[in-house]
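Re: the 179-residue chain
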Amino acid sequence: ENDIYVSPNGNNSNSGLSVDDPLLSISNALLKIFADKNNPRTIHLANGVYRPSDIEFLPLNLPTYVNLKGKAKDSTILDALNQFPVLVTNPYSQAMNVLSDLKIQNSESDFNDEVIYARSFTDSDSLFLSNIEITRCITPSSPMLRTGCFLSLDSVDFINNEVEQIISADSKLKLKNSK
């Protein structure tokens, strides 16, 4: 019932409760974190590259009311190694997720997978992306970002991607300072 800290130099036997005692993997943080409407939580990512391995699993399945925050989009990187989608959210009624201050790169799909997929049960759900770069991703038969919920992009840059479609938003879409 706390924010959790993760670092490529952390250890999954740490508590993850402070920047000085971080977990090693986002996947482990997702198993430990608890959030709800009254107590949203954040997984804080230290600078570094986070990629699939025997302890890091993609796509990340971000629960409702859990946010993912890096240090900066040029130094906190989710790298899918040209193998996987990066993130799936599962919001419930009037839920929200926030992704901020990170780079998503090298997501590749040969079939119907998005880089980010926000599952939604109602258009009152929300996904906010802020200060994010999405680069070198390939989705030939589906959009990079698909959502049925309210989607807000603020300072989100799509750079050097091979896609059929960038965004498929079945609900409201807000774009600000994005390219």
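The longest strand covers residues 96-105.
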